[in-house]
């Protein structure tokens, strides 16, 4: 807001702000939001830093980089790095905006759907509570399938109005004079401002603000100000808690059931507040919401006619008042949300009712909410010299990360859903995506990683049973995880192109256990949290190691151990041609990392204090012979190679080459070749094509030295030239059908081919803001790609590594991009890292921690609290 407005009263300020915005809107030429763009085929992608994002490098002039229509609104030079704005209303784009304008606090999140909207194909009001899952059964052909979903909770926003008894407000039925939507990234507040004229000629300006409090995780607030511009008369406002919602966002799932909530009760709590209590119909989780609904004008409560609305699963008020021309009136709705999964509660409805009157007004909630966000932004501080579009997108990514998991999630027994708490794609399940997310958290809020890892620990018993039932030892974690840790992978999935329901064998991605072990190890490396290792981490790591030793079988002919019937991260290859469901053998990523896990398992045992080691070995009944087998398997796992490159899996070289050019001509978008080929009665399993990085994951997770050592231990030699050869081999054969792919490719190319790497960085940055997958962002954000893009810039380009109790920096940040500055926590030191070109500077905050060692290009410096160390070129 303009500073000159700050002195005035709030309604007055708002009126003036509307005037100011009106001018602004006209100046911005009220552009309609452009349509979705077709992603640029990789071969034609502009060779420019950050793909289609604006130039940072003087070496690359702007004209060379056509900016996609879709991203202009986010990336125009000079864009406010602390806000995302949308000008104009575009029904076709509403779903994407709703996902990107979600507000949340790690306990619950609410999509940026218009407060007056219902699910109607354009809008989709969705509110999701962390860990609130429910299972439903369906019959498809002759099979009964059961799916567990993150439940769409009652719509707490639902607020509409009408004038002089006319029709209830509907954006589609009025003339829209101005329309703006702004997500304030610093404050996590969503604002809609618009002016409309109805059929009767009433012109009304509306300002809507909402927040989901980061300070009090049970509190949400909505405020809607109405300004009758050219009329006076009867204004009716209907504001309710709407429990008629279902899960219906994802078109592919619509043939399956989505009705998860049953009504328990509605009630009026006081003359201005109501309660709605519902229960999930299988998991029995009770969800209570209470709302206080008041109207304010000029700093006073406005008297209204008030009618209680109590219609089945809907409860709230219909209010009526005499509105006067140019006099703003404000509806304020304060909402509390509790569930039976909460701690420190008696029962959710009682808590929702008790806490509602304890909450004050919107602006008071806002003040505390902003304070907590300010603290979070200090921890997640990030400044790039551009201070514009790229910084803006990175902050948007960090905001959505923290809205999905935050300090509010710490006590909740929840994991990180791949699509955030922002939509219903993948039904809110938890995959291996944590691998891309935890590095950002480890370095800033390790307490949160610890809690998210404990989500896995609590499901270790289920993973043990899964391994046992499959005939293995140890723990086999599910590919898709939800409430209790059983496998939630769908049994049948719909190919939307062919319309066929097909078996889904992707649960063969046993590598999810590798990700969990890797995450445990990394968390320990960053924090040195031995308590965690002793009580939880070691047990998970050892049980996962045990699983890999038991799934590996000895191949006498080769004199090596092999792992058969699995899938690598590339989901296209579910089996060999003709055996589509059976998995593939010796996925290089899996085998090399299985060896890594086995060795880390042994190392962990050595790290444990004697007594704890003894206890754990006894509890897990780990025998000496078993540990010997781990050593043996870790040394003799088979890794396939062909043509001087690491083979994605055994037999990959025998597959057919794919006609990339032909298919690029035939289809506008060939990211999902699995679906395209199945619809053509062909199979992607026949070809050398990958959906996403698979073998290249090795270069993403391990440094070249680590990988060389690991392969050396296995008896293979990786020559320096084999690395770029392997990278290029797969680069030419990957469709990037997962947003994770750009993150990994950006990372692995960063050192050798910076320009090409920056293109992938650009793609990772644009994955959601430009909806590069053409329609998936509306179903929920891609959290791993969001967090991964931040990590890619900060950790990869600064060369930040934590090993041997030292913090290593090897920056190769493009000099022309100026200084990149970010904050991290390492061994309890709050550190600010500045990187420019190959130079680095580290500033330590005050404290009493023991000094740490920082290494940059061979120079070692001890950094004590309060110190500042520079590493010039
Ligand atoms: C990717 C997986 C990922 C999942 C959830 C899929 O498209 O292939 O690697 O775990 O999405 O994000």
From TrEMBL:
Residues 86-341 form the Glycoside hydrolase family 65 N-terminal domain. Residues 800-862 form the Glycoside hydrolase family 65 C-terminal domain. Residues 395-790 form the Glycoside hydrolase family 65 central catalytic domain. The active site is at residue 571. Keywords: Glycosidase, Glycosyltransferase, Hydrolase, Transferase. Residues 1-97 are annotated as: Disordered. Residues 40-49 have a biased composition (Low complexity). SUPFAM superfamilies: Galactose mutarotase-like, Six-hairpin glycosidases. Gene3D superfamilies: 1.50.10.10, Glycoside hydrolase, family 65, N-terminal domain, Maltose phosphorylase, domain 3. GO terms for molecular function: carbohydrate binding; glycosyltransferase activity; hydrolase activity, hydrolyzing O-glycosyl compounds. Belongs to the glycosyl hydrolase 65 family. Transmembrane segments: none annotated. InterPro entries: 6-hairpin_glycosidase_sf, 6hp_glycosidase-like_sf, Gal_mutarotase_sf_dom, GH65_N, Glyco_hydro_65_C, Glyco_hydro_65_M, Glyco_hydro_65_N, Malt_Pase/Glycosyl_Hdrlase. GO terms for biological process: carbohydrate metabolic process. This is Glycoside hydrolase family 65 protein. Residues 1-24 have a biased composition (Basic and acidic residues). Coiled coil: none annotated. Substrate binds at residues 432-433, 691-692. Pfam families: Glyco_hydro_65C (PF03633), Glyco_hydro_65m (PF03632), Glyco_hydro_65N (PF03636).
